[in-house]
Specification:
alpha+beta; tt1808, chain A; 3-stranded antiparallel sheet; 11 strands
Length: 265
């Protein structure tokens, strides 16, 4: 059960720059990065003329549907429509719903790994409460263990998720369908997640090299780590300054009215 803390909701919401960009949870296998990034590179090709969408891989998603807006959920991937590709011309470090005009992702992808992380439980209910229209769970290896199907697509209807039948599944509000196919791609054959049109025709991923994809993944991870480290340092400095201010107040000194060391006696 999800409980919202009214006090937390009344506190000022932080800006995206104040928030960590991920939860530092490592992925369990290469495909958790590779397959969502293939979906992203495909969107770059088929929506290259559009600037009103944003697709993120392993990015912190901040919201007000839980107990604390500073605690994110980090989907394997999500897609938002009606937002800028670049926020004010810059790359996002995280996605805060309140900083995006209240736009909630229309599509969320979770990939189940050896260590299950509530894809069919708490996350299922949280995404519904948040208002995510399509919730997709991809479970290629452990679906029998979990008593589910390898690919399940849910649509939000009446406040709850309804499983969509067939495969691929067409998502008219997004203008895309999603399904699976085993294909030879860049010298390897494996099952992949693929976008498709309303006839079921697959939008093939662009022919970039596997090495390029992996390099881009590593670069993105380094950027997220560097940004998160900078944020941690800034937060630590802020906490230290607050402790000093509290100490000065305990001595009867107003930290906001300290004498200027540069002023003449």
């Amino acid at each position: 059960m999800l409980i919202t803390d009214p006090q937390a909701q009344r506190r000022p919401l932080p800006s995206p720059e104040e928030l960590p960009c991920s939860d530092d949870t490592p992925v369990d296998n290469e495909d958790q990065n590779l397959l969502p990034n293939l979906l992203l590179t495909t969107l770059y090709r088929i929506w290259q003329q559009r600037q009103d969408w944003f697709f993120a891989v392993d990015m912190a998603l901040y919201h007000t549907a839980g107990a604390n807006p500073r605690v994110p959920i980090v989907p394997d991937a999500f897609l938002s429509l009606g937002v800028e590709r670049k926020k004010n011309g810059k790359s996002r470090r995280s996605y805060a719903v309140w900083a995006e005009g209240g736009v909630v992702p229309s599509f969320v992808l979770e990939m189940v790994s050896f260590q299950a992380r509530e894809e069919y439980g708490e996350k299922f209910h949280l995404y519904a409460k948040l208002g995510v229209l399509y919730y997709v769970v991809y479970n290629p290896e452990f679906w029998q263990r979990d008593h589910h199907d390898p690919l399940e697509v849910y649509r939000l209807e009446g406040g709850g998720y309804q499983r969509q039948s067939g495969e691929p599944v067409w998502m008219p509000e997004i203008g895309l369908g999603i399904g699976r196919a085993t294909q030879a791609y860049l010298g390897m054959e494996q099952e992949m997640l693929l976008w498709c049109d309303d006839t079921g025709r697959v939008h093939a991923p662009p022919e970039v090299s596997r090495e390029e994809l992996l390099r881009e993944q590593r670069r993105s991870q380094r950027e997220r780590l560097r940004a998160d480290q900078e944020q941690r340092r800034a937060t630590a400095a802020e906490h230290q300054a607050q402790k000093l201010a509290d100490y000065l107040r305990s001595l009867g000194v107003d930290p906001d009215n300290l004498p200027n060391s540069d002023s003449n006696p």
